[in-house]
Amino acid sequence: MTDRALRLGMLGAGTIAGIHARNLDQIPEAELVAVADIDSARAHDLADSRKAAVVSGLDELLSCGLDALIVCLPPFATAGVVARIANADVHLYAEKPVGLSIEAALHDLDAVRKSGVVAASGYMWRSSPLVHRARTLLGSRAVGLIQGTVITAAPPPVWWRDKSLSGGALVESGTHIIDLMRLFGGDARRVTYVGARNLLEPAGCAVEDVAAATIEFASGGVGSFGLSCATHGGRWSIDVVARDLHLHLNFFPEAMSGHCDGSAISHIAEPISNIVPHGFSGAASWYASLRKFITAARAADPGAVGASFEEGVRTLALTLAFEKSLAAGGMRVDVARVG
Ligand SMILES: NC(=O)c1ccc[n+]([C@@H]2O[C@H](COP(=O)([O-])OP(=O)(O)OC[C@H]3O[C@@H](n4cnc5c(N)ncnc54)[C@H](O)[C@@H]3O)[C@@H](O)[C@H]2O)c1
């Protein structure tokens, strides 16, 4: 346990790094001391006002005497990065998805396990008070049905529309809700997945923009998932159905409704004024997830993070199984086991 502020570095200084940096400004137990981005103007935007150093890349970050690193790279740039950080005995918070190939992710996971560092993944909704309440209400009931929905806009980065760089809409974006389906439903055994490109402008776009999937959970429960990434506004939600229970969790803004053992459930997360984006209730989970990581890293307690890197690898294995089914014309595909 350290009682001084954690010395943090940031690798990648784009959109999500900006959100994390502004939330870090509210957490006195950590200070941002170094930033690296291949676009040095972006690194300076993040670093200068915080008196953090701008450095050339991961090697230099690892020679700054950091306690922890937040990895905010696009998926195509992540291979081997987590293993290098763990091998340097630095705690890490890796944005989702945790890679594009299961082999690379397992290599990273192996290094994390051997080093014993605190390793989190950016599945921030695992830190949502709403999700905690839903899990408490579910208790030991077996889940019968889980329905996940992502209806959203395509994110702005150019790399996102190139499936070879982002992994596609499900691996890159839908993964948040797929991760929650795993959280509530447990391990998945088999999946199917079909998708099409028919809403986004085809020029420069190689991701499926509408998709539908099914999941068979090892517990015997079943799940379905629908995705569209070509509208504004939209919905990120999950429905959990078990004996005498139906919970509907919506994440933009965070709210839960439903019933449990005959009683109506209604819960709306209040916006918290000092976290980013200000006044937006969904932002509470970004803050909570980061705060948990900092507490876990200061205590050197890998089990205290909101979403572990290992859970991120398991979710990647599931999303890649969907992609395998898509490539096989929607056939049923087994999900690779992560030991
Ligand atoms: N948890 C969440 O809710 C959430 C939200 C947004 C993004 N993300 C994830 O965060 C990651 C980044 O997304 P973003 O929207 O911030 O992307 P972005 O394109 O805005 O930022 C990525 C940054 O990484 C830099 N970069 C690329 N390759 C690099 C390299 N090799 N070394 C150093 N810097 C490099 C780019 O110059 C850019 O500034 C993605 O994996 C995305 O899925 C997570």
Summarize the topology.
Layout: E1 6-11, H1 15-24, E2 30-36, H2 40-47, E3 53-55, H3 58-61, E4 68-71, H4 81-87, E5 91-94, H5 102-115, E6 119-121, H6 129-138, E7 143-151, H7 163-166, H8 169-185, E8 188-196, E9 210-217, E10 222-228, E11 235-242, E12 245-251, E13 254-260, E14 263-268, H9 283-298, H10 309-327, E15 333-334
Parallel strand pairs: 1-2, 1-4, 2-3, 4-5, 5-6, 7-10
Antiparallel strand pairs: 7-11, 8-9, 8-15, 9-10, 11-12, 12-13, 13-14
This protein binds nicotinamide-adenine-dinucleotide (NAD).
Account of the protein in words:
This protein is α/β, with parallel strands linked by helices. The chain has two domains: 6-124, Rossmann fold, CATH 3.40.50.720; 128-269 and 309-334, Dihydrodipicolinate Reductase, domain 2 (2-Layer Sandwich), CATH 3.30.360. 32% of the residues lie in helices and 27% in strands. A nine-stranded mixed sheet has the order 14-13-12-11-7-10-9-8-15. Helix 5 links the parallel strand 5 (91-94) and strand 6. The longest helix has 19 residues, at 309-327. The structure holds nicotinamide-adenine-dinucleotide (NAD). Nicotinamide-adenine-dinucleotide binds at residues 11-17, 36-39, 42, 57, 72-75, 77, 95-96, 122, 124, 157, 172.
